[in-house]
Structure to design on (396 residues):
């Protein structure tokens, strides 16, 4: 009897397996079959939304295909949760934002992925057409919209971005907020060196994010790291023009999660405002930054190659006491070489209330006009080893 039951259970299981596997044949949706037009003129927003609805509603893995051509899109929300966690978006074409910045300028994000898991984007050019909004902002006009982030992910896990190009975003180019396990590779970001707030990649409240083999030139930070980020890995990135790679600004809020375990290695900065920076507001906060490694970095004519600035307080407003609560510890700078565009190549301006500790310099050589550059520091404690120049800050 038990034997018969077992074989019955087995056949039922096999049947379930058969049907579940037959229903998991991947499906493929071409945006053209939903009415998208590759002419750069026709609004293809509804076609993309419809293709997403199919892919997201599929119980099997799904691919959305965007063929060559220019596709005009207003802001789109790719919303989860989906019925599968394996959606590929393969883009051979160019997605173009409306030329009139007012159309998406107040919508926060142009292309926004919300609560999706297992989305991979391969290829594609995203053209945010931000130049006219930058001009509006620079003219001092108070009525310009703040602008849209080109590509945003919120509460999303297991994301892959491979070979994507983002051009001329109105605001930030690519943002991850509350995301886990993100792998970016071969990403290119390009915007003018004087375009306002056009950060390349911004990561906050996220863990296990990897950025590899990418080239970022923009008017603000190449990569900016917000509070609550852990296990971030950045490797083989070229940055410039731009404001460098920045952890911060941290400590704007009183209650704030910290930044922990960040590796930045094999990075070149060319003509940037900063190289590797940690920045916090000069205000009370529970925030922190610890276990940070900057390794194998080349600086080419960088204004502030190595900088910790804990006295950030624009317009000297809302910074009571002027001392940051953010605790910065265990930061290693190893094998950092090149040229500074200013005399002071290393600046540690730490909090008087929470001095920096465990700041380690190892094999650092930075010059200014073919002479050793200078270092300036306050409230910073740590060590120097190997050849370190300038070395006036830390005990040898
Ligand atoms: C630090 O982050 C990396 C990924 O960036 C991860 O491989 C490593 O395990 C993390 N280390 C710790 C101590 O969590």
């Amino acid at each position: 009897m038990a034997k018969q039951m077992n074989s019955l259970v087995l056949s039922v299981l096999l049947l379930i397996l058969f049907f579940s596997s037959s229903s998991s044949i991947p499906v493929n949706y071409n945006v053209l079959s939903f009415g998208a037009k590759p002419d750069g003129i026709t609004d293809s927003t509804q076609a993309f939304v419809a293709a997403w609805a199919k892919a997201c509603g599929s119980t099997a893995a799904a691919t959305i295909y965007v063929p060559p051509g220019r596709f005009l899109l207003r802001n789109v929300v790719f919303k989860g949760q989906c019925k599968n966690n394996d959606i590929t978006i393969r883009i051979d074409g160019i997605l173009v934002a409306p030329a009139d910045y007012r159309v998406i300028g107040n919508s926060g994000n142009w292309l926004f992925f919300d609560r999706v898991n297992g989305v991979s984007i391969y290829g594609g050019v995203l053209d945010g057409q931000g130049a006219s909004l930058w001009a509006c902002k620079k003219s001092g006009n108070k009525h310009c919209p703040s602008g849209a982030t080109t590509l945003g992910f919120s509460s999303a896990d297991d994301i892959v971005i491979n070979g994507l190009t983002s051009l001329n975003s109105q605001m930030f180019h690519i943002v991850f907020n509350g995301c886990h396990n993100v792998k970016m590779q071969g990403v290119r970001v390009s915007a003018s060196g004087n375009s306002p707030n056009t950060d390349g990649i911004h990561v906050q409240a996220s863990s296990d994010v990897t950025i590899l083999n990418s080239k970022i030139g923009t008017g603000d930070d190449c990569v900016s790291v917000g509070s609550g980020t852990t296990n971030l890995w950045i490797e083989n990135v070229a940055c410039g023009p731009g404001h460098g790679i920045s952890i911060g600004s941290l400590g704007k809020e009183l209650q704030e999660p910290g930044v922990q375990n960040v590796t930045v290695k094999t990075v070149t900065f060319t003509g940037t405002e900063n190289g590797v920076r940690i920045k916090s507001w000069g205000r009370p906060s529970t925030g922190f930054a610890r276990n940070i490694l900057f390794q194998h970095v080349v600086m080419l004519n960088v204004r502030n190659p190595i900088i910790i600035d804990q006295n950030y307080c624009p317009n000297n407003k809302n910074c009571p006491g002027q001392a940051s609560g953010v605790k910065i510890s265990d930061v290693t700078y190893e094998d950092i070489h090149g040229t500074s565009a200013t005399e002071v190549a290393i600046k540690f301006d730490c909090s008087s209330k929470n001095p920096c500790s465990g700041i380690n310099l190892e094999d650092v050589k930075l010059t200014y006009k073919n002479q050793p550059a200078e270092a300036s520091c306050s409230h910073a404690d740590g060590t120097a080893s190997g050849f370190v120049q300038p070395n006036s800050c830390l005990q040898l």
